[in-house]
Amino acid sequence: MDGENIIELRGVDAGYPGAVILRDVSFSVKKGEIFILLGGSGCGKSTIMKHMIGLNPVLAGSLAVAGLEWSAKTRAALCRKIGVMFQSGALFGSMTCLENVLLPLEEFAGLGFKARTAKALALLDAVGLADAARKLPAEISGGMRKRVAIARAMALDPEVVFLDEPSAGLDPITANQLDELILSLRAARGMTFVVVTHELPSIFKIADRCAMFDKARQAMIALGEPRALAESSEDPFVKKFFSRGGA
Amino acid sequence: MGLTAAVGKRAVKYFAGTGEALAFLGETAVSAVALVFMPHRFRFADCALAFERAAAGGLPITIGIGFLLGLILAFQSAAALQMFGAEVYVADLLAIGLFRELGPLITAIVLAGRSGSAFAAEIGTMKVDEELDALRTMGLEPVRFLVVPRIVAATLAMPVLTIFCELAGLVGGALVLRMTGVPPAVYWQHVTDMSSMFAILFGLGKGALFGLLVALVGCGAGMRTKSTADGVGVAATGAVVGSLVVIALADGILAVVCYCWDL
After folding, report:
1. What CATH fold (topology level) applies to the domain A5-91+157-243?
2. Average pLDDT, chain A
3. ipTM of the complex
4. pLDDT tens, residue order, chain A (247 aa)
5. CA-CA distance, B136 to B120, in Å (whole number)?
6. Strand ranges in A133-196 using DSSP code E only, listed in sequence order
7. R_g (Cα) of chain B, nearest Å
8. In terms of CB atoms within 10 Å, which of A117, A180, B18, B134 comes out highest?
9. Backbone angles phi and psi of A10, in degrees to 5
10. How confident is the model over A88-101, as pLDDT tens digits?
């Protein structure tokens, strides 16, 4: 991937006011890349993602998505450039799957009823859930909920899609199907994906590059292609992390 | 921890909570004003659903409690007034008491128990499930999306429920006076004589204010829900307790205002 950078972090301190979790983090994500944020539990990978999607401001440094830093002025524009799938799916329980996907289209797409319904159905079809359109989130499985959440995240054709632990809590077959889905969506739509995960099979299957974080050192300790890191990194934590997956 | 440190920590926590509550109030006010100028962005369907749950869902219990309230008030007062042969004035007492004070108050307490806690639990659960974060990342403000429709629904539902509570109370009172030998026609004559349009509208306005307060407290509690095992439960309890406190405060202030202005 030699494309232009779509996300850039320079000297970012990540965390919450009064609690720094990661210090001086710098990396960039290229357009069309599948970039993984990985590390052990509590290392701050979800915290970094929360900074990237504008939920929490960075404590220090700069973070730009599509050339814009998060602020009150840029918020509306940046929200159109990103789509997010949260770990739980975060679907609205009182709405059907179709209505969940329709929501951002109703609010922002400026499409008529028929056009937006057709688009929402096409998105559900793209994630293999056209049949579940009229079902409530409570009536479908965890894996299906995550697929619907991905469809909703892509509703406004964002430039970057963030996925928080997409494989968490899924059986290996469903997790693999989700990986296939991410790869097929990237191939079909050319979107950039930033994925938070520590599932090694997923990482090796879908990642172009990854950034690894370490809780103890409060720092990013590795950046690069996962196979190359697994094979040649001299860092004991990186070696240990990848060897547990048999890499 | 020393006493000074403990007091200081409590004070910091209290003022942080107050700041959060004020920020929530401000955000709600800004969203509500913005919706006045952009009504197409108001979530009418969500508001209608919340209204249906608050009004239609709360109607049976409100009528039941209103009826029992009228019955009990009439029984208690009739016993005393009968000694003076003045039991017919129970109708006057009920009309004044229900329309001005007890109708909106009792209805607000029912609303706080049913809808205030439900608002807190619904929004709190959404927060724990990251649905509020999902809204924010879509560029949708949770206050406009979730809070304003519920506030409008509760504010509109309260006067409707209050009317039914008051009418049920009057029917309960009528039943008691019928047993004590007061003819229904005389009872209703006394009720209509004592029921000024001002008293009725004042009661309904008070009801709407209480509805607004209950929804604000309930939604605010939901928005501040902590992502802990008991977070939603704490929010729902806080919504009911907080609602009762603000209702009592508002009622007290209105009573003083009415007294000072001779209303």
Report:
1. Rossmann fold (3.40.50)
2. 89
3. 0.85
4. 557 899 999 999 999 988 999 999 999 999 999 999 998 888 899 899 999 999 999 999 999 998 889 988 898 889 989 999 998 888 988 889 999 999 999 888 778 889 999 999 999 998 888 899 999 999 998 888 988 999 999 898 899 999 998 888 778 888 888 898 889 888 888 889 999 988 888 899 999 999 999 989 999 999 999 999 888 888 888 888 888 745 4
5. 19
6. 160-164, 192-196
7. 22
8. B134
9. -130, 110
10. 888 988 889 999 99
pLDDT digits (tens, 9 = 90+) for A206-226: 999 999 999 899 999 999 999
- Phi and psi at residue A126, to the nearest 5°: -65, -30
Q: B136: which chain A residues are within 8 Å (Cβ-Cβ)?
A: 54-55
Structure tokens at A41: 């539990």
For residue B154, which of B262, B39, B90, B239 has the smallest C-alpha distance? B239
Pairs of residues, one from chain A and one from chain B, whose beta carbons lie less than 8 Å apart? 42
In 3D space, the residue among A68, A63, A55 whose CA is nearest the CA of residue A28 turns out to be A63
* Minimum CA–CA partner of B40 in chain A: A107
Average pLDDT of B49-70? 95
B138 and A79 within 8 Å at the Cβ level: the answer is yes
pLDDT tens, position by position, A101-122:
999 998 887 788 899 999 999 9
A19, β-bridge pairs: A16
Q: A71: helix, coil or strand?
A: coil
- Please report, rounded to a whole number, the percentage of residues in chain B having pLDDT higher than 70: 100
Residue in B130, B139, B140 closest to A90 by CB: B130
Cβ–Cβ of A80/B130 closer than 8 Å?
no
CA torsion B184→B187→B191→B194, rounded to 10°? 150
Eight-state DSSP code of residue A225: -
Distance from CA of B208 to the nearest CA of A (A): 27
The number of CA neighbours under 13 Å toward the Cβ of B263 is: 15
Phi/psi for B162 (5° steps) reads: -60, -45
The answer to whether B58 and B118 are in contact (CB under 8 A) is no
How far out from the chain centre does Cα A25 lie?
18
Distance CA B80, CA B61 (A): 29
A205, containing H or E segment: helix A200-206
Which residues of chain A does B140 touch, with a Cβ-Cβ cutoff of 8 Å?
A: 103-104, 107
